[in-house]
């Protein structure tokens, strides 16, 4: 059996050392490299093309969700053995979980999970399956039910399309950014962001930000 080639993108030095030590002891895993921020991580993955990339969300410069999105877009559709992304993080908010999967993550694991479960997640992901930490499974299940309801509900309005600014805000919602973070990135006030979000929800016939993100992705409004 060939070894699973694993790379890690993690800015926490202690977490990096602990994970590296644990995985290097495994006969079925080959440690190929690590990076401490998103930019270096993206270059590392593009250069080494590991089987599994373990990626933290809270990285300096570009976060793990954006890294995942950029790397997945850089992979060829006909690549024989594409790198699979396993998110390993302390973050379990609904927005970030769904944004990670929307960006192309294959699996999602919490940092406080036992080593045995992490190894199980790595193997399952390598075999082509999505591994979802039990701690966030409820979020994925809940969203699946919402998506089914949305698909049976009203369509996105074509008589009142989203403005260019609303599309910018919507893209950032899909990428997992909070209202405060969106305000900072677009150099607008928090109140203005909230106004845009309200209009987006109305135009997409969505009950909340998460449902709006799902509708936007399913309809191709954002990537």
From TrEMBL:
The keyword Coiled coil does not apply. This is DNA-binding response regulator. GO terms for biological process: phosphorelay signal transduction system; regulation of DNA-templated transcription. Residues 155-220 form the HTH luxR-type domain. GO terms for molecular function: DNA binding. The modification 4-aspartylphosphate is found at residue 56. Keywords: DNA-binding, Phosphoprotein. SMART domains: HTH_LUXR, REC. PANTHER family: TWO-COMPONENT RESPONSE REGULATOR. Residues 5-126 form the Response regulatory domain. CDD domains: LuxR_C_like, REC_NarL-like.
